[in-house]
Fold this sequence. Notes:
32% of the residues lie in helices and 20% in strands. By secondary structure, it is an alpha/beta fold.
Amino acid sequence: MAARLSSAAHYEALLAKYDTWMFDCDGVLWHGDRLIDGAIEVLDLLRSRNKKVLFVTNNATKSRKSYKGKFDTLGVEAHVDEIYGSAYAAAVYVSSVMKLPKDKKVYVIGMKGMEDELRDEGVAFLGGTDPADSTLSPFSLDAFTLDPTVGAVLCGLDTSINYTKLSKAFQYLTRNTGCAFLATNEDSTYPAGGGLLPGAGAISAPLRYALGRDPVSIGKPASTMLDCIKAKVNFDPARTIMIGDRLNTDILFGQNGGLATLLVLTGITTEAEVTGPTASSIVPDFVTQSIGDLRVLGK
Ligand SMILES: O=C(O)[C@H](O)[C@H](O)COP(=O)(O)O
Ligand SMILES: [Mg+2]
């Protein structure tokens, strides 16, 4: 049963127990470019209490560096080495886990953030934001030339998805022997400013259906992201808490990594998924309405 937090004493006890605070972003800190009320004050308060703050997002549209730009624009203190996104985790996975040979390329369904992270990891790629792929013209197999050096297809949130990109990815995954099918993450939806939008999982779904095969998913809840963080940051999992809005990614990620978990209800998960007859089998350690609730500690 999750412990419901509501008082300053509850939050004070959390600060005493945990030194490292890992924050999901969409639905916890913001909706699109709209900050959650109180998020800045709480992050500042945690830093004033000498807590280690990390940002762990499945959103692959931005690189760590461009996320730093978003934090700066929103007035949130953040440092690049505190930011871990699924684009970064995917680039590290391709280069250091699957060790894609240097003469091989990745076909990307995704945005600039994914391309920037692959480039920073020295991974060759095609597709992505290439204007030749961003077309609504019918896809012609006769006009398509298969690149035999494509050894993996990496699919992430792509707000310019189209039939050409899906068709090219399908060709590589069915005609290039051993071509790996990778997804940055599989979130079905995400909370944007003003409502829900289809997430990365909805972008890779057509390929999953057409291929009859699931991708290797690299973002939360998989351990790859935590492995990337461990490679850069020294922290004690027993004194670390993961704060998230989605049960099957953020909370499961925390549980898989031996972290404590705090669910907030400002994003995807509803009260009905936490309590009552339709409650999920994924049960966080703690629940609070919003990360802004911790402002009481600064009073
Ligand atoms: O890919 C998506 O669906 C979204 O980018 C993802 O859900 C948002 O990531 P979060 O910061 O909530 O992990
Ligand atoms: Mg989220």
